Amino acid sequence: MDNAQPKTKKSKPHYTGHRQRLRERFLIGGADAMQDYELLELILFTVIPRRDVKPLAKELLKSYGSLSALMNAQHASLSQMEGMSENAATAIKTITAIAHRMMKQELMEKPVLNNWTRLMDYCHMSMDHETREHFRILFLNKKNMLIADEIQVSGTVDHTPAYPREIMKRALELGATAMILMHNHPSGDPKPSPADIEMTKMIVEAAKPFNVTIHDHIVMAHGSHFSFKQEGLI
Fold it and tell me: Which residues lie below 8 Å from residue 107, measured CB to CB, with a gap of 6+?
């Protein structure tokens, strides 16, 4: 008598159906139909094929505090998170880089001053989550269209007189007729320091002999910003 037990069909992992349902919901309803962790799941699906990534997506958002902070985190920081791989961290950083480039290309297609809200969105995306201060300049042509977006100094901006000369040298190299100055405050307080104000005055004065206009100096800080122009400091 044959006592062999009948073979049972191996069931698929529970997350297989979940992945397909999530993809379909995204295709039908778009991003507005998704929670932040679900959008993150869609990214992780592509690089972590055989694992339920919902717990990881939720843990990443919890650790970084927001989707924006997560997407702008350093690659080294992401790859060190439990459950994350080098490929997963690279995927997240690649999508962030694409988003930055798209926003920059949009800005370059029209006068920056006519698209101020979009400019601020771009600046916040680029600088809000930096852990060090960066002094950045948007160089503009005579039509106030973006020529270049460059970080001039990484670290604390101080009173070193060489900075205005170097900035003007770069402006002339690019053929810029106007600039928007920017730097970030990792502390979260966008209020400029006395050193920030003094440095701005020095740059404005250095630009005058070359007929280069300083439209504004923006201090970025975790979702808020301070405009020298709006506050009457330029």
Answer: 115, 118, 119, 122, 146
Decide: helix, strand or coil at residue 59. helix
Sign of the C-alpha dihedral computed for residues 178, 184, 190 and 196 taken in this order: negative
For residue 3, the model assigns a pLDDT of 53
Tokens of 225: 């910003």
First to last CA, the chain: 97
Q: CA angle 50-53-57, nearest 5°?
A: 155
CB environment 104-120: b (16+ within 10 A), e (fewer): eeebeeeebeebeeebe
Report the percent of the chain where pLDDT is more than 70: 90
Paired with 137 in beta bridges are 150, 181
For residue 135, which of 79, 97, 185, 86 has the smallest C-alpha distance?
185
pTM: 0.73
> What single string gives the DSSP state of each residue in 2-17?
--PPPPPPPPPPHHHH
- Report how far residue 157's alpha carbon sits from residue 135's, in angstroms, rounded to the nearest whole number: 7
Which domains are present in the chain? 15-102 (1.10.150), 112-227 (3.40.140.10)
